[in-house]
Amino acid sequence: MAYLNDEFIDKVRDNNDIIDVISDYTNLEKAGKNYKALCPFHDERTPSFMVNPEKQLYHCFGCGVGGNVFNFMMDIENLDFIEAVEILAQRIGLSLPERKDSSTGESTTKSEIYEIHNWAVKFFNYLLTETNQGSEAYEYLRQRGIKEETIDQFELGYAPDSWRGLFDFLRKKGYSADRIQQAGLIIPQKKGKGYYDRFRNRIIFTINNLRGQAIGFGGRVVDDSHPKYLNSPQTPVFNKKNILYGLARAKREIKRSGSVVIVEGYTDVITGHQFGIENIVASLGTSLTKSQARLLRRYADRVYIAYDGDVAGENATLRGFNILKNTGLEVYVVNLPVDQDPDEVIRSQGKEEFELLLSEAVSLIEFKLESLLTDRDLTKIEQKVEAVDDIMPVLAGIENEIKQAEYIKKIAGRLDVETGVIKSRLKKFQQDVSEQDRNYRDRNNKFKSDSKVDSEAESDTQFQFEKKLLELMIKDTQILNLVKAELDSDEFITDEYQSAAELIFDIDNSDWEELINKVNSAEIRQMITEVSLGNYQKEEINEYQLEEAKGYIKKIKEYQLKMKKERLDAEIEQHEASRDFAKVNQLLRERQEVVQLLQDPDSLLGNNFDVGKGGY
Ligand SMILES: [Zn+2]
């Protein structure tokens, strides 16, 4: 690691307080010595993610992740170690050392792609605001009420109506065609060797990551050509499934208010901001993904879906709803006037009117019921029956009985039938479902018992013993000292555990925070943070755990001896074949010793025999 030396890395770590860094991603609340929060790495409703300011470590007691400030950045932003150090250095205004070698590693690729995007933003913005070519696009935006300063703030731009405007510009800045293609900005020609610009004659919306860096673009046509919208493709820095447009700008307000408004379009977000609605983001394309939902869960408790008031918007709403709900968010649907999008509503009626719509937003159940009823002619008997059938899954999904009864009354009223009719249909529906469930379970159980594996492979069990022993070593110094006296680190058969044992054997004064910096294995790191941040007390190490540790030590020694016996058997066979009986006798004596040890497992403790690993 010549580029970033240890001294630099230490400086970056010491000056980035883990509480500050993690606060950008989730709401930390003080809880005794620690801070706690909803885990940004898994879905949960009660906080099990703990951060300790003194030790500068975090650990989630729900999903097990843990580590220091670098590990956090690597996991949450999907970075390698160098990138995490670079970003945290920039965060505290520390300038990065000069790169001596022109390495072509992955992080160089990424940082060049970021640079390319920065240049492209400047290029597009210049064309929009300073040239005749961009005047039509500029007029379009101004007519939609977008102010000059908003154009700059949101880094809006114009891609010229030419085949290689951006390409030539970036080539002149010194970037290779390969790299520009990796950035997703040019497309190779089908015939011939050239390239052409991906975005042509389009209004450009810059898409940023959570840190506000430009990572991709969305382009909207100025005329009637197709497709109306075009996004950057997936690149090493851009995956539209993990990105929400406007989130970098909105996250502070989302966190403060605990709520977020999801819209469909770029201009919905921009207009919202211009009118002071700052907790607003857009999904790129209409179908919301699970990772986008999780991203929102980090900052918000409540989500308002404000998709366009048309059929497509309605379908997208229903899909998005379940995904959001499943991450533990409270979800509401905003009823926009038919055929209007949030942009139009906000511009024509202002912030107050839009906020009124938010306050009148309905729950999923009401929204679903409403949309199931409105599309039908309920004076026709067949349509009525159909509506009732469609409503059943929604009704059955209401867990609260009082609420359910309330809705039954409402629906009966709308359909003009007795509540008893709805109730009996619901009962029938629930019986059918549990019948199906039972059949499914029976089939599954049968399958499981057919393919049941009787015993785990021996080496698998061995990994478990080693893992448990490492856990105990981390928990207690008495056990650690015992293991040090009984085992060499190379008696652990798993490579990962072997190098962990080596590091743990060398630890000074239980300085686990220091050890975290050296451990490469995420599993070991998590064991350390778990013990380090757990409520566990030293007294909890009791006789039982000491005995447990002794048991694992015996198992590890036993395994090594069995391996030795196998090796000896092979040797003996070889020397018998070559009729070297002196050697055979010597090996047989060794084998006898091993067999005796194996017959009396208690003799294994305190007996540092030579396991002769590969020593023949
Ligand atoms: Zn977690």
Automatic annotation (TrEMBL):
Signal sequence interval, chain numbering: none
Comment block on domains: Contains an N-terminal zinc-binding domain, a central core domain that contains the primase activity, and a C-terminal DnaB-binding domain.
PROSITE patterns noted in UniProt: TOPRIM
Any GO BP annotation: DNA replication, synthesis of primer
Protein name in the entry: DNA primase
Region described as Disordered: spans on this chain: 433-455
Function: RNA polymerase that catalyzes the synthesis of short RNA molecules used as primers for DNA polymerase during DNA replication.
Subunit-level organization: Monomer. Interacts with DnaB.
CDD domains from the UniProt entry: TOPRIM_DnaG_primases (cd03364)
Native source organism of the sequence: Acetohalobium arabaticum (strain ATCC 49924 / DSM 5501 / Z-7288)
Catalytic activities: ssDNA + n NTP = ssDNA/pppN(pN)n-1 hybrid + (n-1) diphosphate
Cofactor(s) the protein requires to work: Zn(2+)
GO CC aspect terms: cytoplasm; DNA-directed RNA polymerase complex; primosome complex
SMART domains membership: TOPRIM, ZnF_CHCC
Zinc finger intervals, CHC2-type: 39-63
Domain Toprim: 258-339
Biased composition (Basic and acidic residues): 435-455
Cofactor binding note from Swiss-Prot or TrEMBL: Binds 1 zinc ion per monomer.
Keywords recorded for this protein, A-Z: Coiled coil, DNA replication, DNA-binding, DNA-directed RNA polymerase, Magnesium, Metal-binding, Nucleotidyltransferase, Primosome, Transcription, Transferase, Zinc, Zinc-finger
Coiled-coil intervals: 556-585
Family: Belongs to the DnaG primase family.
Pfam families linked to this entry: DnaB_bind, DNAG_N, Toprim_2, Zn_ribbon_DnaG
One MF annotation (Gene Ontology) recorded for this entry: zinc ion binding
Enzyme Commission no: 2.7.7.101
